[in-house]
Amino acid sequence: MTTPEVAETIGVTTQTIRNYCRRGLFPGARKPLAGSPWLIPTEAVDEFVSPPEEPLVRSSRSRGRGRAA
Fold first, then answer.
1. In the chain, where are the structural domains located?
2. d(CA 28, CA 44)
3. Residue 28 CA to chain centroid, in angstroms?
4. How far apart are CA 66 and CA 69, in angstroms?
5. Which of 1, 17, 55, 60 has the highest count of CB atoms within 10 angstroms of its CB?
6. pLDDT tens-digit readout, 33-62
7. d(Cα 43, Cα 60) in Å, to the nearest integer?
8. How far is residue 18's CA from residue 16's CA, in Å, rounded to a whole number?
9. What is the DSSP letter of 52?
10. Distance set, CA 67 to CA 4, 15, 29, 58, 60 (Å)
């Protein structure tokens, strides 16, 4: 997918997508040549927009709160 396609899909600007690519948020995203646009695998976009299968839940113990034992 191209940068504008991903930006429209996710609902952000093309600059945001370029920043995400530079930060490595889309696995497999690449620029074939210097100065060329980013090419982003559809699978990476799908994974980015889909919610995680299991929510990350922290117990109150892991935060260091609560009564001392």
1. 3-50
2. 7
3. 12
4. 9
5. 17
6. 988 999 999 999 999 998 777 766 665 655
7. 35
8. 5
9. P
10. 51, 47, 47, 17, 10
